[in-house]
């Protein structure tokens, strides 16, 4: 038998005994209109609409689709809806457990079904990025000859994880993380729907808020937790799912955290101040609270990048590259794996030597500019490349530093009003000690008095 084939018999069993299937399966959308989120992919005339035969282009839509998005955003659901809407056979494979042998078996079955029964096949291949180049190559004949409608899913960037021949023959659709409103709507539908919990229990507002935090934008996780908590509540004879029941069921304490209120800013502030104070354990605690509360990982990454310059600066010049790399990684992978990246960066920043010299330097310079201490650029520093510049005396007398043995030209660079003004006061912490020596030496070479 072909792997993971959704047969008519299996669907019939589910219809006869809905409770035999998990809630996430029972609530699987039957049409594109029931899909939660991803509205940018579901507009009239979109490729997915055309793939199921809606609008211009009809059924002759794309024959191969790659769905790229975080876990729980509906990749499997979209593939299933396509198969139901087009009355095609639906075969699901996971690249974690399947290989070339299983792929060829599905393709052979698809060719027999097409030739013998005139029925087309949708092959949903999950985690395609786990397939090697040779394994992905085995899909090409089926895609080119339209023996199957391939819908492949990946959480990794397909430009790096999918071979170019397959990528060029596929339509790439990017799924966005589900919002809290998306997941909230799904939970409320599952509570009332005949396929779901049939209003057997209620979900109070505080419990719903915690469930949304647990879900983290993952619809499957939300429904799984809801089903478990509902079962526990009913076993206790309770008509509503209390917060304590949910906590006991999922073994996760509710975090008092309002992402739109004071708690949001208080915890974020505590994270940065703990990093500034070099208390790595406190910093990790506040990071964990933000993660557990469902904070946007990009927000956390932005705060770390600011901290790298504001509180560490040149004491550890690698702090900013670490924070920037973390932000880039977070944008690519999302939660839950992004928690590891944020921990990596937080620990590195908390333990780095500290200096706020970059912060105070630009602050002092801005203060002078805003106070009107500017003045004209010295004539020898002005642009002398355009016609008539020489007649104005621009660039006259400028000394090219590279022509001198030490590479330092003792000439005035700042405007007259600020010629002896010093903004940068380096610390002797970490790597900035060498900058302190360098700035002292260069100021002497320039003949400047510090002020």
TrEMBL record:
Q: Which UniProt keywords apply?
A: ATP-binding, Nucleotide-binding
* Pfam families to which the protein is assigned, alphabetical: AAA, AAA_assoc_2, MgsA_C
Tell me the ranges covered by the AAA+ ATPase domain, including all copies. 61-182
Please verify whether the record's keywords include Nucleotide-binding.
Answer: yes
Using the UniProt annotation, give all residue ranges assigned to the region (Disordered).
1-23
Give the signal peptide, or none: none
CDD domains to which the protein is assigned, alphabetical: AAA (cd00009), HLD_clamp_RarA (cd18139)
UniProt cross-references to InterPro entries, sorted A to Z: AAA+_ATPase (IPR003593), AAA_assoc_2 (IPR032423), AAA_ATPase_RarA/MGS1/WRNIP1 (IPR051314), ATPase_AAA_core (IPR003959), DNA_pol3_clamp-load_cplx_C (IPR008921), MgsA_C (IPR021886), P-loop_NTPase (IPR027417)
Similarity comment: family membership = Belongs to the AAA ATPase family. RarA/MGS1/WRNIP1 subfamily.
Name of this protein: Replication-associated recombination protein A
> Which taxonomic lineage is given here?
Bacteria, Bacillati, Actinomycetota, Actinomycetes, Kitasatosporales
């Amino acid at each position: 038998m072909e792997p993971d084939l959704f047969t008519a018999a299996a669907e019939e069993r589910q219809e006869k005994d809905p409770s035999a299937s998990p809630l996430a399966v029972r609530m699987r959308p039957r049409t594109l209109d029931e899909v939660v989120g991803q509205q940018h992919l579901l507009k009239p005339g979109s490729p997915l609409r055309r793939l199921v035969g809606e609008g211009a282009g009809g059924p002759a839509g794309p024959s191969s689709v790659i769905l790229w998005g975080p876990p729980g955003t509906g990749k499997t659901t979209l593939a299933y809806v396509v198969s139901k809407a087009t009355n095609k056979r639906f075969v699901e494979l996971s690249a974690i457990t399947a290989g070339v042998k299983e792929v060829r078996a599905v393709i052979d079955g698809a060719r027999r079904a097409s030739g013998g029964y005139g029925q087309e096949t949708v092959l949903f291949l999950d985690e395609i990025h786990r397939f090697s180049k040779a394994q992905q190559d085995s899909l090409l004949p089926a895609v080119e000859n339209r023996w199957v409608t391939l819908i492949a899913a990946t959480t990794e960037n397909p430009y790096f994880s999918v071979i170019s021949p397959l990528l060029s023959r596929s339509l790439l659709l990017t799924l966005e993380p589900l919002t809290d409103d998306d997941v909230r709507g799904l939970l409320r539908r599952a509570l009332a729907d005949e396929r779901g919990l049939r209003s057997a229990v209620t979900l109070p507002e505080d419990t719903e808020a915690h469930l949304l935090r647990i879900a983290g934008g993952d619809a499957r996780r939300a429904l799984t937790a809801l089903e478990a908590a509902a079962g526990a509540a009913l076993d206790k004879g309770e008509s509503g799912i209390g917060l304590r029941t949910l906590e006991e069921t999922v073994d996760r304490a509710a975090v008092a955290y309002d992402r739109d209120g004071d708690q949001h800013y208080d915890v974020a502030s505590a994270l940065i101040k703990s990093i500034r104070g070099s208390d790595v354990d406190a910093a990790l605690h506040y990071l964990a609270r933000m993660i557990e509360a469902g904070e946007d990982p990009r927000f956390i990454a932005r705060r770390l990048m600011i901290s790298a310059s504001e509180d560490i600066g040149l004491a550890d010049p690698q702090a900013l590259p670490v924070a920037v790399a973390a932000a880039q990684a977070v944008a690519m992978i999302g939660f839950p794996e992004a928690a590891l990246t944020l921990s990596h960066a937080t620990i590195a920043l908390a333990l780095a030597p500290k200096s706020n010299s970059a912060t105070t330097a630009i602050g002092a310079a801005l203060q002078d500019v805003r106070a009107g201490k500017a003045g004209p650029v010295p004539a020898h520093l002005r642009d002398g490349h355009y016609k008539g510049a020489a007649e104005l005396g621009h660039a006259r007398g400028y000394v090219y530093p590279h022509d001198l043995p030490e590479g330092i030209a003792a000439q005035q660079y700042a405007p007259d009003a600020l010629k002896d003004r010093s903004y940068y006061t380096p610390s002797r912490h970490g790597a900035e000690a060498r900058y302190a020596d360098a700035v002292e030496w260069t100021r002497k070479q320039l003949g400047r008095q510090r002020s």
